Every structure is written in structure tokens, then in C-alpha cells.
Amino acid sequence: MDSAAVDERIRALIEPFNKKGVTIENATTFAGDLEFDSLTVMDFVAEIEDEFDIIISMNQQAEIENYGQLVAAVHKMQDS
């Protein structure tokens, strides 16, 4: 799956979590821009893991701060 397809699927998954209707860009941060709390992050990560059949470790989650990093990480895991 190419990066654009990963991006499209993640955009669909993030929509219900984007309560403030923030425009999603690569630099959009989960904590700052989207105001995700820890429970929201866990729910969102679970959705991504289910959708892509991957596991995102706690260490990986700690390194992913913005949307672009998430798309890149999921795309990389898809290729593995």
C-alpha cells in the first residue's frame, strides 16, 4: 500500500476523533492541535492497529508527535 493510500485511510479513521474540526496536515500534532488526551490516543491507536493489522508499541507511540510522522510510521510497518 502506498503512502497516499495509508494517508487516506488514516484521515477517515481520525475524523470521529477530530472533535474541533481541525484541518489535518502533516504538521498537525495530536496533543497540541487536536487536543487528544491519553484515552483518546489509546482509542485512536487501537483503530489504526485494527485497520492496518499492525502493532504500534508504546515506544513508537512516544516518538510520533504529528500526523505526518504517523502516516510514515504506519506506511513503514505495512512494508515490513
Mean pLDDT: 95
What is the H-and-E element order? HHHH
Number of helices: 4
Structural class: mainly alpha
For the largest beta-sheet, the strand count, sense and barrel status come to: none
| Overall spatial form | globular
Helix content: 55-70%
In the predicted model, the low-confidence regions spanning at least 5 consecutive residues are: none
Distance between the termini: 11 Å
Count all strands and give the number.
0
The radius of gyration over CA amounts to: 12 Å
Strand content: under 5%
Description of the molecule:
The chain has 80 residues and is mostly helical. Helices cover 57% and strands 0% of the residues. The protein has four helices and no strands. The chain has helices at 3-14, 38-52, 58-63, 67-79. It is globular and about 35 Å long. It starts with a helix and ends with a helix. The mean pLDDT is 95.
List the helices and strands and how they pair.
Elements: H1 3-14, H2 38-52, H3 58-63, H4 67-79
Helix pairs in contact: 1-2, 1-4
Provide a concise account of the structure shown.
The protein is mainly α. The chain is built from four helices and no strands.
